[in-house]
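Ticket closed. Logging final result for Major facilitator superfamily (MFS) profile domain-containing protein.
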Amino acid sequence: FCTLLGMATGESHRERPAPLHDPLYGTTDKPSEGRDRAESVGSVDANGIRVGVTKRRLLVLAIYVAYGLSNQFQYVGNANIVDQLTEYLDCSKLEVNMLATIFALIYVIGAFPACEVFARMGLRLSLLVGLGCNGLGAVLKLIAVAPLKAFWLMALGQAFSGIGQIFFLALPPLLAATWFPTSERSLATALGSLSMFLGMALGSAVPPAIVNDTHRDQTAFAANYGSQAAFCCGVALAGLLFVPAHPEHPPSVTSPRYAALLKERGSAFDDANRSAASANNNDAVEAAVPAHVFSQLWAQRRNANFLILVAIFGVGAGSMTAVSAVLAQMIAPYGVSEQQSGTILLVGLIAGCVGCVVCGPLLDKYRRYRKPLIANYSCLVVILTVLALLMRFVDPTSENFVPICYMAVLLIVICLLPTLPIGLELAVELTYPLPEAVPATACMWSNALFSLIGTVAASLIFGNKATRPEGQALIWAIDGLVVVCLGLVVFAVKEERRRYDAEQSKKAAADAAKVGGDEDEPLVAPEGAQGVSVSFF
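Final structure:
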């Protein structure tokens, strides 16, 4: 949120419009003047469309971050109170662990149908459906512990929260493309992505502080799940009141809103991009994008770069997500309590969120994706190898192992989390002009699938009580998977920047059109280019 505030008040935007005359805004060189409708007056291109950004984009992103945080809090919120929840609801540890797999299972089943919902209902309505399911799931889980003590109702509430997840995970690239200009797009994707991990961090640390060996009665459980329900319902209300259907003006020439306005005006769409794609031999970029999600994905069947990236994304991030769900059980044989394990994961994930914030502006500036992935995966291999050796040879006492856990988790998460926005942005670049939600959904679907497989496998291996050899074997297995991911990035993935190339082609065409016109004539917005009014409801 501090980063969002800096974006709102800062004067460091690289693309400041020159003073211009407009019948709606007048002549000004201070884009922030006037109504909140436009932070930047922007410019009118050859198609008569004004490109500009609004400060409301920061509020929309903040609501999305709160949505993701509350949803992923519920995803791992039971992982560090397994013993207390088992006793309170009279169920097994395996059943409690399966609550986390409900999220992954629902996402694997419903991710691509949700993409179709995005296409038909739009960003606002899809977001509201997700927020509603997220809030309903939290309320049902509150009822499951107070006044009832019903595991089946807890599982039902988790299922509704999982439905809310399918409208959340794949949204960062689409939200960034819809609301943010090119110079802020990767940062917006990074901020949206880190909300998932921040929610997991808080979900690992907060519940053990409320429900623990000292406080394990109905009051403690009601406080834990009641606070979750209140926050989720508050975020849903904020989304209903403050998230419009679309921005006043498209923020860039490759945004979905720009394409919609072009279609309304009957203009030829994406000619510059087609010529750029032809010049780069990008056969996967088709002149006409298929209408349905599965057709769009089928059109990418020969896009080897994208398919390999989806596999890498799932294996790398999904396996680590599975470990976070069973972390408390894995390190318990080393004398680390559930509350300590929650604090360890909280510290690590907050540090990883800082890494996401740092990588966003760097991606916007350098437009390089492959080298950061290689560097991050290389560091992960080294860290996991050292951790596995320490787990084998260090005396298993809390005095020795708690510092090791803090350092290992901190380094692992710092290296892992930035791969999420990097991978999502690269997937969008590789599949342009597909809608941003489609490649993002494919990546997150792969993540959820491997997370589901990993969580189920780890839960079955650990059972009701984990041992040291089982934890060591899990770390070695994940280390091997990361080595495979590193090899694929080095030898199989090629960096293509189709969306970026399309933007540069369109800018060059617009500059050429300006050179051909009368430079002394003030720029006047054509009739109908003032933008489209926004209805919040």
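The CA atoms of residues 137 and 160 lie 5 Å apart. No further action required.
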